[in-house]
Structure formats: structure tokens, C-alpha cells
Design goal:
Strand order of the largest sheet: 1-2-3-4-5-6
GO molecular function, one term: DNA-binding transcription factor activity
Pfam families: WRKY
Main location: nucleus
Radius of gyration: 19 Å
Distance between the termini: 18 Å
Number of helices: 13
Organism: Oryza nivara
Helix content: 40-55%
Largest sheet: 6 strands, antiparallel
Shape: globular
Protein name: WRKY domain-containing protein
Number of domains: 1
Amino acid sequence: MALTMVSLAAIAGKPTAASAQLVAEGRESAARLYALLVGSSALHGPVGLAEQILLCFDRALAKLHGVNLAGAEDDDDAAGNGNGRKRKPGRGRGLTAASAAASSKRMRVSNAGGNGARIERKATMDDKFLWRKYGQKEIKNSKHPRFYYRCSYKDDHGCTATKQVQQSETADDDTASPVYIITYFGEHTCRHGDDAAAMVVDGGEEEDQLSPAQMVISFASSNGGDASVSWPCSGDDAQNNSETSHESSPPEAPAGEEERLRPCTAAGVSDEPIMESTPPAPELLADLKPMDGCLLDGESLFGMDELVYFHELSAALGLLDRDWGAPV
DNA sequence: CACATTTGACCGAC
DNA sequence: GTCGGTCAAATGTG
């Protein structure tokens, strides 16, 4: 479902056949979702959202094909104008004065020691929230260390939100495009962001459960600006993290980024238990917006419209999850 | 000087 | 005993 939106991110800067495939799959899933929602009279809002999702995928596909396949567009009747709006490197959109000030501090973050810091910032700086790294650990069976962050407002507001960032060892081997798995824990009580405050309302029930939510971020190496953001739908990962004390990413995942995205886009892949155990955390949803704010090197992922879809869809998810939580 | 990162050590869970 | 998460002193940067 919303997870399918993951594929949207695949249209980032460097379109490839693989990303086209992913988007196509995502679009297919969205179509299924749409069919489901249409059948349910009580879900008019989500129906509209599903339509928007479909439009997004259509545009993404059209854009991909236009660039990549030179007009070899197959099924998508997309309006075709994948109007590639580039997102500005948004600065502190919706931040309060306090957070904006703090954000500027963040920007002058020092590189004490240097190594690895760039990677970490890459994976984490594009956050509405201010995170402070408090640890780094080598994880067994994982080539890359895991970085531990907590909300910078922990001391000030007692904010308990934390997140863990780990580079997947699956994607960087051959693609040189690292995939970062970000697992969120806890709830932002600092509420330094407008959206954060709004989100807290939505995800209230999980506030203190430390129910982790995951997202996968793929960054290109220096050349591309190819980036993608994935929802906490990666079945295995999310489940592992929720049921156990968040294991490291499964080493057996062979295909890296694609493998992580596929479960999201493929229909019928045990979404329900995943969503049940790890609903999209509010802070995760909020994170999606800042994500666009600091895309690499001015490269854009997708337009603001798509981002709005992300946002709205997240709200819709709340409804859907409840329905799915109580299967008929 | 203030603040953030680094990194070894500590602690709890399994 | 091992492993993962956190702490805190040391260190670097603006």
C-alpha cells in the first residue's frame, strides 16, 4: 500500500530499467489498493489518495520511460508530463524558531575524526528532527557499523526518540549505492516541528511502545545523486526489529535495494502482520518531508506533489491499518 | 567556549 | 560468554 510509494523514490535522479521495474510494480500495487478501496464505500478519502498514488506512478513511469526508454511507454496512459519539478533544498520548512536555530547549529556540524561522519550525516541530516549521535557499534554479521542517534532534545524536553542507522551490506557491494536502513524508536515528545506535533496525534497509541518503524534510504555514490526512500514496509526487516530487539539487517537479502523494495510493492506479501506490528511511526512519516529538503547535490527525487501524497497517504494508513488489524 | 562526534567501556539481555 | 545498546570522557570544529 503506501509502501508502494517507495517505488516512487526510485525515480530519483538516475532512471534505470530496474527503477522502472520497481515503479511499475509499485504502480501495480497501487492499482490493487485502488481496486480494494473502491470496493469499500466507507473509504472515500483513501480512494482519492489511491487515485493520486496511481497518478504519481503513472507520471513516474512516463518520466522514466521518457528518459530511459525513449518513448517505449507500454501500459501507462500517463498524462505523460512527468513535470519534473525539482525540489529545492528546502530549508527548515515548518520548523519552529527553536528548531530552526538548532538546525543551523546542526549545519555547522563538525567532522571530528572525520571518517564515517560524512556517511552518517548523509543518512541522517535530512531529518526534520535533530539527531545527536551517541554511539556506533560494529554489528556481528554485518560489514557496516550501526549508528545510534537520539533526539537532540532529549535533555531539554526529555524526548525519547531514537533511531538507528545502518548501511545495508547488500547493496553497496556491486552498485556502490549504499542503502541505509533507518529504524526509529520511541516518540518525539519535543515537538519542535509542526508536523511532529500533528503526527503525534495520529500515532498516539504507539507513543511509548518503542515500536520501531523502518525506512530504507538509498544514496548514490558521489556521481549520481540517485537516492530513494523506502517505507517501513520491508517485511523481514521491520518484523525482525519489532519482534526481537532489532537485529541487524538480514545478511541473506541478496539483491539489496531491490530486494527491500520489492516486498513493498508486491501485492499479498504479508503486509498485514507487518503493519500491525510496526505501524508507520509518526516521526517516520514526518521524516519523509525533510528527506526532500536535503537531497544530494540539488538532485531531486520527485515533486512536491508526490511528497504531499506521501504525507496524505500516511494519514490514510491510519484508517487502513485499523481495518486491516481487524480482518473480516 | 559551546557543541557535536568519536570511541572505548560499561551494562543488561540472551 | 557474546552481543547489542548506551554512557561518558576525549577530541575536533566553528
